[in-house]
Automatic annotation (TrEMBL):
This is Carbonic anhydrase. It comes from Franconibacter daqui. Belongs to the beta-class carbonic anhydrase family. InterPro entries: Carbonic_anhydrase, Carbonic_anhydrase_sf.
Amino acid sequence: GCMDSRAPTEMIFDVGIGDLFSLRIAGNIAGQKVLGSLEFACQAKGSKVILVLGHTDCGAVTSACQLRLQQKQVSDVKEMPHIQYVLGPLMRSVESVYD
């Protein structure tokens, strides 16, 4: 799920702490570390279901869309040098809509 605290997985699924393997990252980006964590949860710990939980008004998705509308690149966001790892994949998705 997204890292936004408005979507707390334990509350949404009415379970307790420790009942879920929960990965949270802005914009639900499935990079190498997320994929490796999912493999671990399934293979080493026996998880049977993977659910991608999105929510409305995601700030990361909105930021990617705004950059596209302003005809800017992720590299233009100088104040956040690591945001490329989140917005980069989102920008590729946004661009695919405009192609």
